[in-house]
Amino acid sequence: MIWLTWRQHRAQALAILIGLGAIGVFSLVTGPRIAAAFRELHACLVVPGQDCGLLHESFDRRFSGLQFVIPLYMVVPLLMGVFLGAPLIAREVEQGTHRLAWTQTVTRGRWALTKIGLVGAFTVAAAALFAWIVTIWSAPLVAASGQRFGFGVFDLRGIVPIAYAVFAVALGTAIGASIRKTLPAMAVTLAAFAAVRVVVELLLRPRYLPSQTISYSFLQDSPRAGLGDWVITSRVFDPTGRFVSPDGGIHINPTDLAHACPGIGGGLPGKDEVGRCLSQLGVRIVDTYQPGSRFWLFQGIESAIFVALAVGLVVLSMWLIRRRIS
Amino acid sequence: MNTIALEASSLGRRYGGTWALRDCSLSLPTARVIALVGPNGAGKTTLLHLATGLLQPTSGTIRVLGEQPGANPEILARVGFVAQDMPLYRSFTVAEMLRFGEELNPAWDRQLAVSRLESLSIPLSQKVGTLSGGQRGQVSLAVALAKRPDLLLLDEPLAALDPLARRDFLAALMESVADHGVSVVLSSHLVSDLERVCDHLVVLRSGRVAVDGDIAGLVRTHRLVSGPRHTGPLGGVGEVIDRTDTDRQTVALVRTVGHVLDPAWTVREVDLEEIVLGYLGAREGSNAQADPTLRAVRPAPSEVGS
Fold this sequence. Notes:
The structure holds two protein chains of two kinds. By secondary structure, chain A is mainly alpha-helical. Helices cover 66% and strands 6% of the residues of chain A. The longest helix of chain A is centred in the first third of the chain and has 44 residues, at 2-45. Helix content of chain B is 28%, strand content 28%. Chain B has helices at residues 44-52, 73-78, 94-104, 110-119, 133-146, 163-180, 215-221, 272-281; strands at residues 4-15, 18-29, 33-37, 59-64, 79-82, 151-154, 183-188, 200-205, 208-214, 222-228, 239-245, 249-255, 266-269. Classes of the chains: A mainly alpha, B alpha/beta.
C-alpha cells in the first residue's frame, strides 16, 4: 500500500516540493538583504529618543514591493487541498480503479487509511517546511511593522499554515469522496476552503478571547504602541459629542473649533493646535485590541479549530468510502 | 472443502426506489465456469458487486466460498475480480501493475503473471494507457489470476474486445481453469461466446433469476416445438417457457419431461442461445403465471400419447 500510494501521488508530491524549493530559493536570495537592512533600522530603534522615522520609511519603501508574495503564499494550503486532497478518492472512483484496489487482499478501510495517512503526513511535513521558511524569512519585516496579527501575517507564520493545509487536504478528500468527479471536486474544494477561511478570519478570530480596551487622550500615542497588539477598533469619544461622527471618526468644522477653543488662531489651524484643543475638550481615543502577547495562544486556537475540522472530514471520508461507494 | 462457490438467499439490492436485484436465490457450485447472462440492466453487475463485497445487500444474504464477501483479507484473497471496462492505473507500466498486485496480495504468483504476459508478447515496460483493449484485458486477467483466487468473477470481460481478442481472452481463461481449478463466474450479454466455455448458466432478467442450471442439462431438457396454430394450453410438456402464436403457427420453447409425443408437433433440439433468448423473451412474471393460457402444463393422462 505504501508503494502504491507513493506511485500514485509522486507527481503531485514532486510538484509541491518544486514549489517549496522555489519559495526556498526566493527566500534565500531576498532574505539576507532584508535582514541586513533591518539590523540597521534596529540599531537606530534601540537608542532611546532617537528619531528613526526616515530610516523606517526607507526600509518600508524598499521592501513594500515584497507584498506581492502574500496572496501567492496564502493559496499554498489551498493548492495542496485542491491538487492532493480532491483527486485522492475522486480520481479512483472516476477511473473505476477503486474496484481494482478493493478486490485485492486489502480491506477498503485499510486502503483508505493508508492513503489518507500517508498523504496527510506528507502534507504536514510540506506545510511545516513552508511555514518555517516563511516565518524566518518574514521575521524582520514583521518586526519592523509591529503587525503580527495582520492579514497575510498571522495566516502565513507560526503553526496555522500547517493546520490550514491539513484541513484543505481533508476537505478535498471528503468532497472528492462525495462528488466522485475530480474537476468538480477541485472546484468545490477551492470555494469551500475559501469560505471557511473567510468566516474564521473575519468572524471567529477577533472573538477567540474577549478583547481588551484602552483609552488615551487624543494626539497621544497609545501607551501600548510597539507591543504588537491587534487593534480591532479605534474610535474617538468626545464628552460634548460635537466633533464625533456617527462612525466613531472625527469631524472638524473650523468654526466649531474656533468656538470651542477661543485661543486658536484664525484661518486654518495647525495640526498641533487642533490636537491641543481636542485634548482640552476631553476628546479621547478608545481602542479595543487583542494583546500582542496572545499571538501564540491565537495561533493555537485557530490551529485547533482547523485540525478538529480536518479530523471530522477524515471521519466523514472514511464513512463515505466504507458505506457509500461501490 | 466448500463445494458452493456462491450462495444467495432472497438477495436484493435497491438503488433509491429501484430494485436492481430482487429476491435472488442461487447456489452455484465450485469447479465450474458459470455464465451469468442477461440484458443490460438485468442486475448482473449488481450481483457481482455484491459477491465481491463492493456492495452490501439491501435484503437477504450472500456468501462466497461460505463466507461473507469482502469482510476480511482472507476472503478477499480467495476471490478475484475483473470489473467492467477492466480498470487499470493508466499511468502505470505493465510491470508496475504487477508490482501493484504483489504489494496488495500476500499470495501473489509473480511467475504466473510474468510468464502469461510474456507468452502474449505484452512488454512489461509499456504504459498501460497505451495498450490495446485486448492487451488491457489480458493484463487485467493476469493480475486477477496471479492473485491465485479460488473463485474468479469477471464482469462483462468480453464487451470491450474485438472477436479475435475475445477468443484469446477466453482461451487464456480456460487454460488457467484447467491448470489451477479456479471457479469462474462470467457475466455477458452475448451468449454465443459463452457456449464453448461455460458449463453452468444463470439468466437474470429485470433483477430476478429467470433460470439457473447446468448447461448440458438445460440443453437436454429444452425443445423448440412448432405446429399449426393452437390457442389452448400445450399438453405433454413440463413447462412452456416462451411461446409465439401467429395466425397459422404456434412456436414454443418448452421444458420437457420425457419425450414430446404429440405427432402434431415438430420438435427440435435447441442451443444455449435459443434457451437464453427464450427465457429473456418470456413474459414478465415467472413463466406465465400472469397469463392462464401459458400456464405450465403437467401432462394429463388423456393427452399423453393421444
